[in-house]
Amino acid sequence: MAVEERVQIAIDNWEPRFLANGIDPNDFKQVTRRVEKWDDWLREWSACAAMHLALGEQAEGERCYETAGVHYLHAAMAYHFGKFVFVQNPAELRTAHQRVVASYQRGLPYFDFPGERVTIPYEKGLNMYGILRKPWHHPGPPIVILMPGLDSVKEELHEYGNDMLRRGMAVLAIDGPGQGEMEFACPLRHDYEVPIGHAIDYLESRHDLDTSRIGLLGVSLGGYFAPRATAFEKRVKAAISLAGAYDLARNFAHYPLLTREAFVYRCGAANDAEAYTKLQAFNLKGVVSQITCPLLVIMGARDRIFPVQEAQEMAAEAGANAQLWIFAEGNHVCNNIPYKHRPQQADWMRKQLAM
Which residues are catalytic? Predict the structure, then answer.
């Protein structure tokens, strides 16, 4: 069957990401087999999510809470990947995102590492929202703040969080400006040290965490945010940039169509030209040299979004503080080889925060 360009891009580029972050391979095959037109993408993934939601409710009603947690997570991820770049219809995108948040929240008490939804005071009366989870076997743990990318959200970082939690670190996954729950209130901002500063202020108000040991992990666009925030927020003790960009504007014309459209939407721009102008500020030149703590830079050499040179420049400017891991076979975020970097990056973070 002939499928529209956006559908084919989503299938070709993002299958490893879907599978690495909670979509069952069978669901992926069945849903994508049904979709020919982009207009159908969100509806079909939402149907998949509704099926898991019903299974979760059934399991919860039978007091099978572990099973309920599994299905609520599947529902949240299916709703998310239905709307993650569905920017042509903001109203449907927003409704689906509300279902992401609600489904994940229903599963939160039942995960192997349960957690809580937290409210973080931001600017101009706005709030950021996060998911805080702690390891049950380590009191007063260090904490890693998890930052999503352009079209990801805090809930998508669930498995990244599990890696940290199993190693005795707490995690706070956040939606910053232009991301997840905040994308409807304000656009992306280049100076991500501001939202990170608010997040750390919130963490310091608690008494169940060791806030002298704070790490950052940013994925994709979050891989730009992590080193940017670390350069200016000195309460951060270690950071990981996973598949991040050094200069977001210079490769804008070569980004896949869905990525360019998402940048236009989440930058609050009217068109490609305005988005390109706004992205000029998203540049780490002269910034990463100010990082004074350990920085791990990870990149796949087959990344179709950000060229491998972005990681090389980032690590070179950071100098002796940086380690650079390049995987020759890795795609964007190395989602096709998660076993080669996800456990290892968590090991690296544990070593840095073991003070």
Answer: 220
